[in-house]
């Protein structure tokens, strides 16, 4: 919105809105690839698409430099995009799931440590008392 102030001449005063942080719901319209894949909020989607695009360019240009066949090089480029995108997607999602499992195990361990600390069920207390006998 432009507002004009009268003192000191007619210069426009523009108020800039703060840019929304990525991943914040309700702030702006999310970027969707092909109308279905929300690249901003889905973990691993952005990296997979970027690496797939790079793989497509490398595969297509490499095939074209070796064979000089345009149509076949485009087919190889599309195949490279699919293979690299799916490969990166599955690797990233596997690592993400593995990390989530490790975080859950650590969270449960911390919760149990807090819950059982200084009670007769504390495993550290049992090892300390048996070691002193």
From TrEMBL:
GO terms for biological process: mitochondrial respiratory chain complex IV assembly. One of its GO terms (cellular component) is mitochondrial inner membrane. Pfam families: Cox20 (PF12597). The keyword Ribosomal protein does not apply. Its main location: mitochondrion. Keywords: Membrane, Mitochondrion, Mitochondrion inner membrane, Transmembrane, Transmembrane helix. The chain crosses the membrane at residues 49-66, 78-96. Signal peptide: none annotated. It is found in: Mitochondrion inner membrane. Belongs to the COX20 family. This is Cytochrome c oxidase assembly protein COX20, mitochondrial. It comes from Oryctolagus cuniculus. The lineage of its organism: Eukaryota, Metazoa, Chordata, Craniata, Vertebrata.
